[in-house]
């Protein structure tokens, strides 16, 4: 056996590499990583040169490789097999990062809406300026929320899942022309907001001036809110344009229909 001062006992080698002694024993038992020397009395000794091999195994484990995968690699190690292994794990890591970023975006959207719902006042109108924003649209809907509309909603939901994975809830839109005629129930399509990192979208909600108003309660409250919008536009000589976009703010924390908060934004211009 080599000079004892160049060798490490299991305890010394474990401490040197920040690993548990029991883990070293287990690795030896399964043939994954064994000490350089074993004495007849059972004492095991590692060399300093084995640190590199152990670090590679520990790196593989941090990358998520199973013991079986590492053993399989060790049976036929090569530059090509190592590169293939790294490429596969890099793909898995990239997929995990993308999934986590999607979850982060989803939570940020929910948090922003929930914060807005905490200060919402029924029927209060604000004039705001919004930037253009990408939107995705469902097939046309009847506005009756019947079986046909539920089928449209289901198909739209599946489409959003295929594009975004996780997505914020989608809303409904109704044309300003129908609002002004008092036809508050004739919805046009379901809509959802696009994302800047995903190219797919159907239309652009134009930048411009909008009225924003909140409805608190069930569907019966919405008619009164649309009446308030029309009265406000008439009082201040405003022309409603484009579409009104309805979106729920607190559907994940609502306890009953009376607590449901809907935000409505509709474009306007000042009449000349």
Question: Can you give a write-up of this model?
Answer:
This protein has 272 residues and is α+β, with helices and mostly antiparallel strands. The protein is 43% helix and 23% strand. The chain has eight helices and eleven strands. The longest helix is centred in the middle third of the chain and has 40 residues, at 79-118. The chain is elongated and about 95 Å long.
Secondary structure layout plus pairing:
Blueprint: E1 7-9, H1 10-17, H2 21-29, E2 37-38, E3 44-47, H3 50-62, H4 67-75, H5 79-118, E4 125-130, E5 133-137, H6 147-164, E6 171-175, H7 176-180, E7 189-193, E8 203-205, E9 208-216, H8 220-235, E10 238-248, E11 261-270
Antiparallel strand pairs: 1-3, 2-3, 4-9, 5-7, 5-8, 6-7, 6-10, 9-11, 10-11
Poorly predicted runs are: none
The share of residues in helices is 40-55%
Q: What is the number of strand segments?
A: 11
Radius of gyration: 31 Å
Task: Tell me the strand order in the biggest sheet.
Answer: 4-9-11-10-6-7-5-8
* Terminal-residue CA separation: 99 Å
Global mean pLDDT: 86
Shape: elongated
The portion of residues forming beta strands comes to 15-25%
Category by helix and strand content: alpha+beta
Oligomeric grouping of the chains: single chain
Q: What series of H and E elements makes up the topology?
A: EHHEEHHHEEHEHEEEHEE
* Main sheet characteristics: 8 strands, antiparallel
**Number of contiguous helices:** 8
């Amino acid at each position: 056996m080599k000079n004892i001062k160049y060798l490490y006992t299991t305890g010394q080698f474990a401490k040197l590499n920040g690993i548990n002694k029991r883990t070293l024993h287990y690795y030896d038992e399964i043939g994954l990583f064994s000490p350089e020397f074993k004495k007849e009395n059972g004492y095991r000794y590692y060399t300093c040169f084995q640190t590199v091999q152990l670090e590679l195994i520990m790196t593989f484990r941090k990358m998520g490789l199973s013991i079986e995968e590492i053993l399989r690699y060790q049976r036929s190690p090569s530059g090509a097999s190592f590169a293939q292994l790294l490429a596969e794990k890099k793909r898995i890591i990239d997929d995990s990062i993308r999934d986590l970023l999607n979850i982060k975006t989803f939570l940020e959207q929910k948090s922003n809406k929930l914060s807005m719902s905490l200060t919402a006042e029924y029927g209060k109108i604000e004039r705001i300026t919004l930037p253009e924003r990408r939107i995705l649209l469902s097939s046309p809907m009847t506005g009756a929320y019947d079986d046909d509309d539920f089928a449209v909603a289901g198909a739209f939901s599946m489409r959003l899942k295929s594009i975004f994975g996780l997505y914020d809830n989608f809303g409904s839109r109704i044309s300003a022309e129908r609002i002004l005629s008092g036809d508050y129930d004739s919805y046009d399509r379901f809509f959802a907001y696009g994302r800047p990192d995903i190219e797919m979208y159907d239309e652009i909600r134009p930048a411009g001036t909008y009225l924003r108003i909140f409805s608190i309660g069930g569907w019966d409250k919405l008619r009164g809110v649309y009446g308030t919008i029309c009265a406000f536009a008439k009082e201040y000589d405003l022309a409603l344009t484009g579409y009104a976009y309805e979106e729920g703010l607190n559907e994940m924390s609502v306890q009953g229909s009376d607590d449901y908060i809907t935000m409505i934004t509709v474009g306007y211009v000042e009449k000349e």
